[in-house]
Write a structure and sequence with these properties.
The complex is a heterodimer of chains A (111) and B (114). Helices cover 0% and strands 58% of the residues of chain A. In chain A, the strands form 2 sheets. In chain A, strands 2, 4, 5, 9, 10 and 11 form a 6-stranded mixed β-sheet that branches. In chain B, strands 2, 4, 5, 6, 9, 10 and 11 form a 7-stranded mixed β-sheet that branches. Chain B has a 4-stranded antiparallel β-sheet with strand order 1-3-8-7, with no helix packed on it. Chain B contains no helices and 11 strands. Chain B is globular and about 40 Å long. By secondary structure, chain B is mainly beta. The chains are: A mainly beta (111), B mainly beta (114). Chains A and B meet through β4, β5 and β9 of A and β4, β5, β9 and β10 of B.
Chain lengths: 111, 114
């Protein structure tokens, strides 16, 4: 059974810092990996999706990488802003296309 | 931009009562998922539909939960009777068949059982 772990559980940084969120998974036979953002009490917003054949994806200030062999993905946020404050979730998709989620990293960007 | 719709957004119910949630996926998305998210945790899959057929409901507590997608479009998730431990966010997602299989989530229904 796939297990997804996110470290750290919470992170607080000053505005303008670059930061990295980590995600690890136990089964490397994934179809894709998605990163989501969740604001308090809200649904999930998809940020980036990396297919198993890809190594990274970029969108604006966000860059996600995938290393299947080591079972790791990272989300890099450049020049963080207070509006980036949210919980970030990673999820892996297996052959049935179901998502297995980590518990998330709660990010606070201080002005 | 097409979105997944869910209603209600918030629901407060007393234990032992029945409650139902509705989801309308993005048009053309054949696959529909219901997830449950307990506060402070990641979402966990309850049931997956492909068109009107259940693909996986192995994590659905079938003694009290039921889900249907009769015409292969919108879906209803029901709990009867509700228990205190059912308090959570219920999220619906949909994805197209083929391509990246990217899942798109609705705003969720926050259930509080008192």
């Amino acid at each position: 059974k796939q297990e997804v772990t996110q470290i750290p559980a919470a992170l607080s940084v000053p505005e303008g810092e670059n930061l990295v969120l980590n995600c690890s998974f136990t089964d490397s036979a994934i179809y894709n990996l998605q990163w989501f953002r969740q604001d308090p009490g809200k649904g999930l917003t998809s940020l980036l999706l990396i297919q198993s054949s890809q190594r990274e994806q970029t969108s604006g200030r966000l860059n996600a990488s995938l290393d299947k062999s080591s079972g790791r993905s990272t989300l890099y946020i450049a020049a963080s802003q207070p509006g980036d404050s949210a919980t970030y979730l990673c999820a892996s998709s297996g052959s049935a296309r179901q998502l297995t989620f980590g518990s998330g990293t709660q990010l606070t960007v201080l002005p | 931009e097409a979105e997944v719709a869910q209603s209600p957004r918030y629901k407060i119910t007393e234990k032992s009562q029945a409650v139902a949630f509705w989801c309308d996926p993005i048009s053309g998305h054949a696959t529909l998922y219901w997830y449950r998210q307990i506060l402070g945790q990641g979402p966990e899959l309850l049931v997956q539909f492909q068109d009107e057929s259940v693909v996986d409901d192995s994590q659905l507590p079938k003694d009290r939960f039921s889900a249907e997608r009769l015409k292969g479009v919108d879906s209803t998730l029901k709990i009867q009777p509700a228990e205190l431990g059912d308090s959570a966010m219920y999220l619906c997602a949909s994805s197209p068949v083929g391509g990246s299989y990217e899942q798109y989530f609705g705003p969720g229904t926050r259930l509080t059982v008192t």
